[in-house]
Write a structure and sequence with these properties.
Domain RHD: 15-192
Shape: globular
Structural class: mainly beta
Oligomer: single chain
Pfam families: RHD_DNA_bind (PF00554)
GO molecular function, one term: DNA-binding transcription factor activity, RNA polymerase II-specific
CATH architecture: Sandwich
Strand content: 25-35%
CATH superfamily: Rel homology domain (RHD), DNA-binding domain
Number of strands: 15
Radius of gyration: 22 Å
Organism: Periophthalmus magnuspinnatus
CATH class: Mainly Beta
CATH topology: Immunoglobulin-like
Number of helices: 3
Protein name: RHD domain-containing protein
Amino acid sequence: LGDIFWLLYPPLKITNIPEVQIFEQPKQRGMRFRYRVEGRSAGSIPGEKSSENNRTYPSIQILNYCGKGKVRVSLVSKSEPYKPHPHDLVGKDCKDGIYETEFGPDRRVIAFQNLGIQCVRRREVKDSIVQRITRGINPFNVPREQLLQTEEYDLNVVRLCIQVYLQDENGQYTRALMPIVTNPIYDNRSPNTAELRICRVNRNTGSVKGEDEIFLLCDKVQKGTVPPVYS
């Protein structure tokens, strides 16, 4: 009976190994990627729980660890293998498209409040990827040949990649935890990935017999790609 019990109810796996978890995902739609030439702020990536009255941001928590560390955030491609993305992160503590900062033992949850996405043009993709290679920004060690296949990069969607480094006995940040990625973030400028919105409707009531003609005016919808569903 004892053997059967443990087969039906295996013991919970308890580990003391430090690991990174997503505390709040970024909001996937509604943000516009900005070009450098626009000369305007790229804004801040909101969290998925963010609202007009309560602004939240993407955040992580580090389990089974209390001490100092360093966190690096970069952009990677939507699909595996996760390649460094040519777009840049911009904002406080960002340099060359990468965000880096240190944290102390009191930081249970680390939120990324000032991260914006600055996009590059298709002709600038190769130069941006070469810069990533030169700086050693390749969290998932994708072969160089694949990184340079620039036509495969989707410029309308990115993911955040979070890498955490903990202090060793010498106080150096050499203990790298497994990198993690967030849900995809889509550029609101692109018709294929934008947040759909009904701008105007000609009527909001109808006969129970049906057959009423209704016109919906929407923005950023490509013809034939979005079927209407009524419920």
